[in-house]
TrEMBL record:
<dbReference type="GO" id="GO:0005737">
    <property type="term" value="C:cytoplasm"/>
</dbReference>
<feature type="domain" description="PPIase FKBP-type">
    <location>
        <begin position="23"/>
        <end position="113"/>
    </location>
</feature>
<comment type="similarity">
    <text>Belongs to the FKBP-type PPIase family. FKBP1 subfamily.</text>
</comment>
<dbReference type="GO" id="GO:0003755">
    <property type="term" value="F:peptidyl-prolyl cis-trans isomerase activity"/>
</dbReference>
<keyword id="KW-0413">Isomerase</keyword>
<keyword id="KW-0697">Rotamase</keyword>
<dbReference type="InterPro" id="IPR046357">
    <property type="entry name" value="PPIase_dom_sf"/>
</dbReference>
<dbReference type="Pfam" id="PF00254">
    <property type="entry name" value="FKBP_C"/>
</dbReference>
<comment type="function">
    <text>PPIases accelerate the folding of proteins. It catalyzes the cis-trans isomerization of proline imidic peptide bonds in oligopeptides.</text>
</comment>
<dbReference type="InterPro" id="IPR050689">
    <property type="entry name" value="FKBP-type_PPIase"/>
</dbReference>
<protein>
    <recommendedName>
        <fullName>peptidylprolyl isomerase</fullName>
        <ecNumber>5.2.1.8</ecNumber>
    </recommendedName>
</protein>
<dbReference type="InterPro" id="IPR001179">
    <property type="entry name" value="PPIase_FKBP_dom"/>
</dbReference>
Amino acid sequence: MGVTITILDPAEAEPKKLNPKKGDTVEIHYVGTLDDANNTPFDSSEDRKAPFTTQIGVGKVIKGWDEGVVQLSLGQRAVLLCTPDYAYGARGFPPVIPENATLKFKVHLRKINNEVATNVPEADAELAHRR
């Protein structure tokens, strides 16, 4: 039980190997799906064309993100597979996420505090610097 991390391209990490720490503010693009036969999508910052910004490691997001994102390096893309106890548990998040659902998030760690990843598209990087 917990969060399983699959790095999609280890070479994408920044040369500095900068990792977020508890309390850091991160910017992430993500696609969230149920871990079911259809990989049913339930949320996507990419579809909204607006990356998600949050403080990490302090309980503002699900436990799978709090524990998984801090293991990524700036610029990395990964899949976080979160068991129900690291997601929304027995309650789920009706009507979108059923009870006891395992969730899969494809994530791209684009920014840690004021440090922007080099593999963020140029126009997006300019926006990230302004935030």
